[in-house]
C-alpha cells in the first residue's frame, strides 16, 4: 500500500499503461488506423500495437514520432515525451533496500514523482507525504507480518525522500482530507503524535498544500471507510488521472475514467463536509501539547 508496506505487483507498469492510453487516445482523436499511423511513423503495425498495449519499451523518441504524425500540440506532446523519459530514467527509489517497496508501491512512487497534483483521503492514518520519521517508523513496525529492521528503516527513509516533492522546483499540489480520528490516534505514542500534529501545521502553511479535517461531529460522509488517492498530471483530458485504492496487502489502480469518476465525486462530497483550511489549522493547534518539528 502507498502508506504501508505490502502490495501486489502489476505488469506492465502503471506508468507505461498511462503513456499507452494517451497514445491510443491521440490516434483515435486524429482518426488514424494502426496501419496508417505505423506507415507514417516508419515502423511495423506490430510495433504500433505493442506501443499501444504498453509493451516495453516505450521510447521517448517513439512518443515524439507519433505526436508529430498526429499533429499533437507542443505542450501536450512535450508532457508525454517527458513522462516517457522519466519512465526510463533511474530515480532515487533504485537505491532503496530490496523489499522496502513492493512492486505496485514502486509504481505508485514513480507516478507520484511525475504527478502535478494529488488528492488524498485518509480515515485513520496521516498521508505518507506528511508523516514525520518517527510516525512512519511506528506505522511500519506495526505491520503484520513484521519486516526486518533494515527493511523497515529503508522504507521509512523512502517515505521521507518522497516528501521532497512538496518543495522541489515544481512542487506537487496536494489536497488532503483527513478524519479527525487521524489526529487523536496516538501512533508511536503521545510525544510522536504531538510532533506529528505540529508537522501537519507546518505543511499546511505551504502554498501548494491544502489540509482539511472532517470533524467528528460531521456525522456520515462520502466514502466512509474507503481511503483513496487520485494523482493528476498535466490537467489535460488526454493526460488522465490515476486512482489508487488501498486494500490490506495490496493496492488497486483505477485507470479508466468511468472507474475514477465515483472517487472524484466522493472527494467533492468530502470537501463539502470538511472544515476550511483555516479552521482545520485552528483545530489542530487547539489539541493538547501540539509541537512543531520532526
Automatic annotation (TrEMBL):
Domain DUF5753: 107-285
Record CDD domains: HTH_XRE
Transmembrane segments: none
Gene3D superfamilies assigned: lambda repressor-like DNA-binding domains
GO MF annotations in UniProt: DNA binding
InterPro entries in UniProt: Cro/C1-type_HTH, DUF5753, Lambda_DNA-bd_dom_sf
Name of the featured protein: Helix-turn-helix domain-containing protein
Species for this entry: Amycolatopsis xylanica
Amino acid at each position: 500500500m502507498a502508506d504501508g508496506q505490502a502490495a501486489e505487483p502489476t505488469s506492465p507498469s502503471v506508468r507505461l499503461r498511462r503513456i499507452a492510453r494517451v497514445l491510443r487516445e491521440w490516434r483515435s482523436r486524429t482518426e488514424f488506423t494502426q496501419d496508417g499511423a505505423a506507415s507514417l511513423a516508419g515502423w511495423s503495425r506490430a510495433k504500433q500495437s505493442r506501443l499501444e498495449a504498453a509493451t516495453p519499451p516505450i521510447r521517448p523518441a517513439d512518443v515524439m514520432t507519433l505526436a508529430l504524425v498526429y499533429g499533437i500540440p507542443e505542450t501536450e506532446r512535450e508532457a508525454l515525451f517527458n513522462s516517457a523519459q522519466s519512465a526510463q530514467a533511474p530515480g532515487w527509489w533504485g537505491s532503496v533496500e530490496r523489499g522496502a517497496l513492493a512492486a505496485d508501491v514502486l509504481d505508485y512512487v514513480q507516478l507520484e514523482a511525475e504527478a502535478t497534483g494529488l488528492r488524498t483521503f485518509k480515515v485513520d492514518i496521516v498521508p505518507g507525504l506528511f508523516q514525520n520519521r518517527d510516525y512512519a517508523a511506528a506505522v511500519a513496525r506495526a505491520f503484520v507480518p513484521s519486516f526486518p529492521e533494515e527493511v523497515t528503516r529503508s522504507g521509512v527513509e523512502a517515505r521521507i525522500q518522497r516528501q521532497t516533492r512538496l518543495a522541489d522546483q515544481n512542487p506537487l499540489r496536494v489536497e488532503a482530507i483527513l478524519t479527525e480520528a487521524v489526529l487523536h490516534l496516538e501512533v508511536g505514542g503521545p510525544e510522536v503524535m504531538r510532533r506529528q500534529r505540529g508537522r501537519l501545521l507546518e505543511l499546511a502553511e505551504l502554498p501548494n498544500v491544502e489540509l482539511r479535517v472532517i470533524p467528528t461531529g460531521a456525522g456520515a460522509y462520502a466514502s466512509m471507510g474507503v481511503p483513496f488517492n487520485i494523482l493528476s498530471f498535466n490537467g489535460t483530458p488526454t493526460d488522465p488521472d490515476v486512482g489508487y485504492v488501498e486494500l490490506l496487502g495490496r493496492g488497486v489502480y483505477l485507470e479508466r475514467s468511468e472507474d475514477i469518476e465515483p472517487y472524484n465525486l466522493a472527494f467533492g462530497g468530502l470537501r463539502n463536509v470538511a472544515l476550511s483550511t483555516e479552521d482545520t489549522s485552528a483545530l489542530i493547534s487547539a489539541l493538547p501539547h501540539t509541537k512543531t518539528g520532526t
